[in-house]
Specification:
The protein has one domain: Baculovirus p35 (Sandwich), CATH 2.60.250. Helices cover 7% and strands 42% of the residues. The strands form 3 sheets. Strands 2, 3, 5, 6, 10, 11, 14, 15 and 16 form a 9-stranded mixed beta sheet that branches. It is globular. It starts with a strand and ends with a strand.
Length: 253
C-alpha cells in the first residue's frame, strides 16, 4: 500500500479544495535478503502541489522494536528500475513461464533518517503516529478499509512539492511472513479508499522460482544496487495495468 498524506490544511480555501497528488509509473522490487528478512524498494513519478508524506504499511514481525527497519540509500542508483526494465527488452535475456491505561512517560520523538533525497522514519505501530511530525497523519479510512494494517509497522517518507521522478526508496525489515514476499500495491492518494483503483505498476522480484504468467529475465545482472539485488540470479517481473482490485500483492518467496 502507498498512502499519501498531505500536511493538514490551515486555511478556508485549503480545507475546501485540498491539494491533489498524482502518481504514475510505480516500480516496486522485493526479495528475501536473509531468512525472515525482506528487502523492498519503491519508486514512482510524483506530482504534488504541497509537501506530502508517503506511508507504506509493512507486515513487520511483532515485537521487532523501533529499529526494525534498516533504510538503504539508493540515491546513487536513480536509474535502477530503468535498468531492471532493460533486462526484459532484449529477447535473448528473457523467457516466459507458465500461463497467466496507567500514566506513562511522554513518548520520545521517533528517529528521523536522511536517506538520499528523503527524510524517512519508521513508525512501529498505528498509535506511534502521534510521535511523528504533527503536520502529517494517516487517514482513518485506511484502517477502516484494511483492518489488518492495525498491527503493521510503517515506513514514512517526506517528499517535497512539485513534479519529480522519485529515486528508489529502499529498506529491509523482519517480516512476519518469511515464506512470502510482500509488495505494497494498495493505494490511497487523496484521502479516500476505493475497492478498485487504476494501476500503473511494474513489480520486480527475485525468488527461487517465478509465478505463472510473470516474465523472467535470465541475463546476468551487473549491479547489486547497494546489495539490494542478487547478482547472477534471474529477475522476475509482473505488470499491473488498468482498473484492478485495490489490494496488496503477496508472492511465494
Amino acid at each position: 500500500m502507498c498512502c499519501f498524506s498531505i500536511a493538514r490544511p490551515v486555511g478556508f480555501f485549503e480545507r475546501w479544495f485540498p491539494p491533489k497528488v498524482h502518481v504514475s509509473a510505480t516500480n516496486i522490487f522485493a526479495r528475501m535478503t536473509a531468512p525472515g528478512v525482506q528487502a523492498l524498494a519503491y519508486a514512482m513519478n510524483l506530482d504534488a502541489s504541497a509537501e506530502v508524506a508517503m506511508i507504506l504499511p509493512l507486515p513487520v514481525a511483532p515485537d521487532s522494536g523501533e529499529d526494525a527497519l534498516t533504510f538503504l540509500d539508493l540515491s546513487a542508483h536513480p536509474r535502477m528500475f530503468a535498468e531492471l526494465a532493460a533486462l526484459f527488452d532484449a529477447p535473448a535475456m528473457q523467457a516466459m513461464r507458465g500461463g497467466p491505561s496507567r500514566a506513562i512517560p511522554a513518548p520520545k520523538t521517533l528517529a528521523v533518517h536522511k536517506v538520499g533525497s528523503f527524510i524517512a522514519s519508521y513508525v512501529p505501530s498505528r498509535a506511534d503516529f502521534t510521535r511523528l511530525d504533527p503536520r502529517f497523519r494517516v487517514p482513518d479510512v485506511l484502517f477502516d478499509a484494511v483492518p489488518h494494517y492495525a498491527d503493521y509497522g510503517f515506513a514514512v517518507f517526506q517528499l517535497e512539492a512539485g513534479k519529480a521522478t522519485i529515486h528508489p526508496m529502499a529498506f529491509t525489515f523482519p517480516t512476519r511472513e518469511p515464506d512470502k514476499l510482500f509488495l505494497p500495491t494498495v493505494h490511497v492518494h487523496d484521502g479516500t479508499f476505493q475497492r478498485e483503483a487504476t494501476f500503473d505498476h511494474a513489480l520486480y522480484y527475485q525468488a527461487p522460482r517465478d509465478h505463472a504468467g510473470d516474465e523472467t529475465a535470465w541475463g546476468k545482472l551487473t549491479k547489486d544496487y547497494s546489495m539490494l539485488v542478487e547478482r547472477g540470479g534471474p529477475m522476475h517481473r509482473r505488470t499491473l495495468q488498468g482498473k484492478l482490485p485495490n489490494q496488496d500483492t503477496w508472492l511465494v518467496a
